[in-house]
Amino acid sequence: MLDDDDVVLITVPGWGNSGDKHWQTLWELTYPLARRVQQQDWLYPERGAWVAALDALVRDSCGRIVLAAHSLGCHTAVEWLRTVDLATQRRIKGVLLVAPPALPISEARARASGELPEGAALPAFSGFAQASAGCLPVPAVMVASQDDLFCDFATAEAMAALWGVRLVDAGRAGHMGSHAGLGSWAAGQLLLQRFILA
């Protein structure tokens, strides 16, 4: 049973899931009320299925919630927020959007990422043709870096404006995933704590 002050952390990984060294995984190890969205197919994402998986986990979670999304998980979270009723929106204390990729994801970027096993077919990224438009209905902040393979900073600025969220410049931190060397990413935890304690 959750206390009134308890907040559930739901992590929303991106394409390929988040590995052992990813900040999402490390946060889950230290936060007692952490849950991860699980997708049936991490390599060949389909937006409808990914949004449905996030929705199912939220509905299976009690109390207030913060979301910490990375990469394609950001677009999943943003799209999901457009589908939920007001009562569900009120349960969301905040959303942390980290390194959303520019859409559509080009073949060059996908192959350069290292996510595709050798010989694997390129994903269609079905449903992820463009970023959803409109201001988000819950408190949110977006973090982007200056040298992200998947998204140049000008595009990140445009997405933040499209969603009506504050953009935090992470400097030169790449795509901010497992290979970025962020560890438990203390700066990200501070952003998350502001939502939890609000």
From TrEMBL:
The UniProt record lists the keyword Hydrolase: yes
What UniProt keywords are attached to this protein's entry?
A: Hydrolase
Matches recorded under Pfam families = Ser_hydrolase
Asked whether the UniProt record includes rRNA-binding among its keywords, one would answer no
Task: Please name the GO terms that the record assigns under molecular function.
Answer: hydrolase activity
Regions crossing the membrane: none
Query: What protein does this entry describe?
Result: Alpha/beta hydrolase
